[in-house]
Design goal:
Length: 267
């Protein structure tokens, strides 16, 4: 008897997290790296052992105090540990064994790891997955990992700390499974076929929101905002300018649909 599609997909998927010295991925040095496949994460959570392979790495430059304040990782903790550059060969070997990797805000982790010269499997981002699944859910008001941990009541010990890489891998792993099961429940992916391929296609499509989340029209449906405002926004919002680095393709697609609906109603 073959492996069911969900189990097969989870076997192909690695959860990872990095803790670094900077929020700018091109400048960041990795000071902690953790990774485990989803089934290992689920097993360690079920057994309440909370054991995920991880390693500390001594950076070339000192860890800034503002980073230690976030991660609780100090220069004393990483002193004497191998550099991340020395650890790269074994990490690259591990990454090559998986078809996908998952991280919360995978854009950042991808950027950091690419900047260190690593080749990565295809990425799934739990932040984007949550944003898309709960785009118009008023009960979900944020998408950071710690918030989702409690908003979705993930079955993780309350004593598990945030921001250490091994702990974040455990939270991200159970969050990913929860979100995949929600995607199947909502019918956005089948669940009986190639789950990874279906999820890739669905996540590539824009996240459509229907309500304003900022500005003087905050709380209104996009279609309730005057067309004159959208005409002004198209000329002034960096997030709606495809040539700007701040361009937000999800917001732009949502605005385009809203304008189309407004124009149809006023035709």
């Amino acid at each position: 008897m073959g492996v069911d599609p969900l189990t097969k997909f989870l076997q192909e998927t690695l959860i990872l997290d990095t803790e670094t010295t900077s929020l700018i991925h091109k400048e960041a040095e990795i000071i902690q790296y953790a990774s485990a496949d989803v089934l290992h994460v689920l097993g360690t959570i079920a057994a309440e052992t909370y054991d995920v392979p991880n390693s500390f790495h001594q950076p070339e430059k000192s860890i800034p105090p503002e980073i230690s304040a976030i991660t609780s990782i100090t220069n004393r903790m990483v002193k004497g540990h191998e550099s991340f550059n020395d650890a790269k060969p074994r990490i690259q070997t591990e990454l090559a064994q998986y078809k996908y990797f998952v991280a919360h805000n995978a854009f950042y982790d991808s950027g950091v790891l690419n900047a260190h010269g690593l080749k990565l499997p295809k990425a799934f981002c739990t932040m984007r997955l949550a944003r898309k699944l709960f785009a118009d859910n008023d009960d979900i008001t944020a998408y950071n990992l710690s918030y989702l941990r409690y908003a979705l009541d993930l079955p993780i010990s309350d004593t598990l700390p945030a921001h250490l890489a091994d702990a974040d891998v455990m939270v991200t792993g159970i969050l990913f499974l929860t979100l995949v099961e929600e995607a199947i429940k909502q019918g956005v992916i089948d669940g009986n076929g190639d789950i990874g391929a279906e999820l890739e296609v669905w996540l590539e499509a824009p996240i459509i929101v229907t309500k304003m989340t900022f500005g003087k029209h905050k709380g209104k449906k996009l279609v309730e905002v005057p067309i004159s405002y959208w005409q002004w926004a198209l000329d002034n919002f960096d997030s709606l300018d495809e040539e700007d680095s701040a361009y937000d393709r999800d917001f732009a697609a949502s605005v385009a649909l809203a304008i189309e609906e407004i124009l149809e109603e006023n035709a």
